[in-house]
Amino acid sequence: MTKIAVLGNGRVGGNLATALDRAGHEVSVADRAPGAAAAAARSARVVINATPGAGSLERLTALGDDLRGKILIDVSNATTDGPDGLPADLIHPGSSLAELLQEALPDTQVVKTLNTMLFPVMTSPAALSQPPTVFLSGEDPLAKQTVRELLTDLGWREEWITDLGGIRTARATEAAILFVPHVIRATGFAPFAISIAR
Fold it and tell me: Is residue 196 in a domain?
């Protein structure tokens, strides 16, 4: 059992919180109330950033003291939106939200994952017609092992999890968000994920 704080109570955060609670973890969800995020982060071992990516860097940097020594799982994508509300471009081209978070929070172990799929797949990967792939990016091997174990609790099989290496590799997975609007326009809003076929 791990004490987990989920920052963000929208579809992504709510979905993850429900699934992790069902898996037996002690989960708290921080809403937008003043001080809620700091209190939740302070009491947790693992913090999940499920806040809108455009404001995540500023929001989490302000929680630096509360995130010290924690594992921060970043599932957000920092993008600007097009007229239809779908992602249009990256806010941090040539870098990534995860890299900037790690730079701003040197005493926090940032791990990027679960950002290359529509949100229902995060907690129901086996529901797809073929195996999806989930990626890990981060500098700390022990933090990535903890995240790997949480992913298996969410239904991800070991062979579906690919460790890409250091946090700089998050540039690649964050850029994958640019596929999403085109796929949705072409095929409709149905759950899908990036998958590495071998």
Answer: no
